[in-house]
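Memo to structure team: turn this sequence into C-alpha cells by end of day. - J.P.
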Amino acid sequence: MATILVVDDELGIRALLSEILSDEGHTIEMAENAAQARAVRERMRPDLVLLDIWMPDVDGITLLKEWGGAGLLTMPVIMMSGHGTIDTAVEATKFGAIAFLEKPITLQKLLRAVEQSLVKVAPRPAPPAGVSTYLRSEMPVQYVSPNIGMLPQSVQPALGLASEQSFELDRPLREARDAFEKSYFEFHLSKENGSMTRVAEKTGLERTHLYRKLKQLGVDLSRNKRGSGI
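Reply from structure team:
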C-alpha cells in the first residue's frame, strides 16, 4: 500500500479522505496548508498527493508549480477543487498534476483515481531544467465531474418498498443506474429491518463496502432501523 499526503484546509475533507483511504490500507499524512505540505513532503516522501486548489495562504496550483520548478515533483499529484473548470484542470495538468477531481468527490471516482495514479511509471532520462520530473505519459489526464455517480436529491428513502418498482429511463445512464441501486438497497434494508449484517449477506457485499456504498448513494440508514442489530 502507499503513503498518501492529503492537503486541504477543510478539516472535514481531510478527515473523510483519510478515513476512506486508510480503510483501503494506505498510510495517510495530512496537511492544512502549503507550509505543512512542504514539511510533510520533505519528511515522508509520499507516493501520492491529493492537493486542494483553493487554500488561504498558498493555493494548490502555486505549490504544484513550486514543486515542479524545484525538481520535487517526483510523485503523482491529484488536484481537488469545489470550484474547478475544464480550464483549471488543464492548467493543473500542464504543471504536473495527473488528475483533477471536482468536489463533491464520489467514493468510486476517488478510489479509481488513486488506484490509477499509483501505477508505477518506468524510469526515464531526466527532463530538461524547469520541466516536471514526474513522467505521466503512460496515463491519460482525468477530469472527474461532481455529477458522475451522484444520486439526484429528489429521490428520497422509503419504507416498506415494493419488490417491483418503475424507473425513469429517459435520463443519463449513470443517474438511472444510481437510482436503481439506491432503490435496490433500500428495499433490502427495509426487508431486513435495517440489519447491515443480513443485507450484506443478502447482497453479497462485505459490510464495509456495503456501508460505503450506502453513504455514496445517500441512503438514510436511520429510517430503516427497527431496533435490530446491525
